Amino acid sequence: MDNHIVEVINVTREVAWLPWAVQYFFLIGLSVGGMLLSLPGYAFARENWRALGRTALLVALTCGLAAPVALLSDLHQPGRFWHFYVVLRPTSWMWWGSIFIPLYVTGLLVYGWVCFREELQAHGRVDSRLAALYRLTSLGGGRNDALIRAAGLFALAGALLVALYTGAEVAVVKARPLWHTPFLPVQFLMTALAGGAGLVLVLNRFAAGNDRAVEVQANRLLAGFLGGVMLIGGLWLALGLFRLDATHAEALGSVAGSEAWRVTAIWAVAATALPFAIAVAKPAGTGLVTGLIALHGAWMFRWTVFIGGQTVPKTGAGFYDYALAAGPEGLLGIVGTAGLWLFLLIALTAILPSPRRPAPGPARAPQAPAGTVAAE
Fold first, then answer.
1. How does DSSP classify residue 356?
2. The pTM is what?
3. Which parts of the chain register pLDDT below 70?
4. Rounded Cα–Cα distance for residues 293 and 259 (Å)
5. Cα–Cα distance for residue pair 142/247, rounded to 1 Å
6. How far is residue 204's CA from residue 49's CA, in Å, rounded to a whole number?
7. 223-279, pLDDT tens digit by residue?
8. Are 63 and 342 within 8 A, CB to CB?
9. Is 112 helix (H, G, I), strand (E, B) or coil?
10. What's the rounded Cα separation, in Å, for the pair 192 and 186?
11. Distance (Å, whole) CA 28 – CA 61
């Protein structure tokens, strides 16, 4: 008879990346997505994209300004941010992020100004304090497409660098197979585009005149982005199921026995397939529904990656428990970040002139040119 006692010890670890990180990756993703969607209408001067581009630029500016606040909060001691600038760490993606984020936000603000300055001037929203800046960026008066394109391309470079670093700083963690995949940065970008299109649809309904043409255009874009999300997710799943890659097989095996992860997978498929089907079948009149579901999907993907990914032990058996706290490091932080974004949206839409709503009723006949007499 064996009288030995075998004691199994497992260490439970608290999550290091809190919901603040989820909010940051969510907001910066929406900002990058909105910025990319604004380029055809502004940087490339395609008039049929201008209305959508205006709403997308609102998304980029408001989310781009709120995101760094969430990132500073996730440092636990926000004063630590200056360490990035006094200690060089060129081998760290986080260190590169401290360079790319100010570059992107600065480029985004300049791009937003040169895009909106003519609109502000036309409606008398440029006071004496901004008049000199307006004259400096006018360069001959009127809309300066070359300047807008240059500012847009600079902001695009910053956006792509941010998209690269946000995906790479997670994907390089070899100790977590769920994160260590080249598909993660691509999926971050695709879900960011889908979330950006979703927020365009929501703002189009409540803050941009409910333009039906913008709704149809954004829904079609959303369907394309969600199709890309499903394709990338399917490739990741296939590599794990058929054991074509050891890391992907290990990642899938680490959560295969969890009922919670199975429910999460079904939820993720539904949150992607449902708005895709609606946007394809009926792009007009469904923008609010598809937009909200797309935003939910983009946020839930990041929550699952960060919070869910940290509940899978690097070593040992079972899963770590996580309960969302009610204070600043949990629910209050999420609500506070959303409140900051809402404040920025209200402030920006209060400064910008309201978009023109289409006149109800039958189309009016075009007016006779000045100096002519209409026939009786």
1. P
2. 0.87
3. 1-2, 6-12, 78, 122-143, 315-317, 355-376
4. 23
5. 55
6. 14
7. 999 999 999 999 999 999 898 998 899 989 888 888 989 999 999 999 999 999 999
8. no
9. helix
10. 10
11. 10
Structure tokens at 353: 């002139």
Q: Are 51 and 41 in contact (CB under 8 A)?
A: yes
Exposure on the CB side of residue 261, measured as CA atoms within 13 A: 19
Q: Tell me, what amino acid is at 242?
A: F
55, two tokens = 């709403």
Eight-state DSSP code of residue 308: I
Cβ proximity of 215 and 204 under 8 Å: yes
Q: Please choose, from the candidates 119, 111, 125, the residue with its C-alpha nearest in 3D space to the C-alpha of residue 60.
A: 111
Q: How far is CA 226 from the centre of its chain?
A: 14
Whole-number Cα distances in Å, 335 to 79, 327, 332? 22, 10, 5
What does the alpha-carbon distance between residue 274 and residue 9 come to, in Å, rounded to a whole number? 43
Alpha carbons 134 and 83: distance in angstroms, whole number: 36
Nearest CA-CA partner of 96 in 35, 189, 160, 191: 160
Question: Whose structure tokens read 């979703």?
Answer: 198
Residue 187: name the closest of 290, 298, 94 by CA. 298
The structure tokens listed for 254 are: 């680490």
Q: Kindly report, residue by residue over 317-357, the tens digit of the pLDDT.
A: 678 888 889 998 899 999 999 999 999 999 999 988 776 65
- Angle 40-188-290 from CA coordinates, rounded to 5°: 65
